[in-house]
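Allow me, if you will, to draw on your knowledge of protein folds for a short while. Thank you for your consideration; the sequence and its tokens are set out here:
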Amino acid sequence: MSNLTKTSPTPDDAAADADPNRFPPPPLFEQERMVEAILFASNAPMTMRQIAARMPAGCDPAEVIYGLKVRYEGRGVHLGKVGDAWAFRTAGDLGFLMEEDAIENRRLSRAATETLAVIAYHQPVTRAEIEEIRGVTVNRGTLDQLIEMGWVRIGRRRMSPGRPSTFVVTEEFLDHFGLESARDLPGLTELRAAGLLESRPPASALPADLFPERQPEDEPTGPADDLFDDE
């Protein structure tokens, strides 16, 4: 039976195992793939030191970064420097493709809805006529904001003392509600059939004390307070 002896590694062998350059680095193309993956996966720009710490020993991040920067010139994304760090960024001239329009649905306030309805059914109509029909004062911002929405525009001036401006609905208003013209607006019978109006006698035929007297509208506290209800 032979004796087995255990030999300890020599200092030269230990030094060879600890040498980071004992194995050759990956080819440059593989190093570029590694850096691409590292930068794409990172949620923040990375410095050269941070990139080197993730790569095999013997790699040259500086050479790889230079090669990638040249490779991505003129593409949809490019390799850009942010301070001392590097990151892939969208090409500046393609930024518009990443824009997203958000549509915020907001309900018109009662005052704005009534004002818009008066204009739609009685156009061309002056501000004084709107107030007379509604029985309340029209806030200064209500008409301005309906105009900003694109649903109301200023019409011709009346040939009467003071030459007051009139208001009419726009084609955008008609298009929004699927109307060819203001003549296609539903009548009272259609509104009642759709449940949008109550079937009741006019207020003039009811006792005067049944409805409290309507007060003038409060002045708006901000540019949108009069036009929209709070959600």
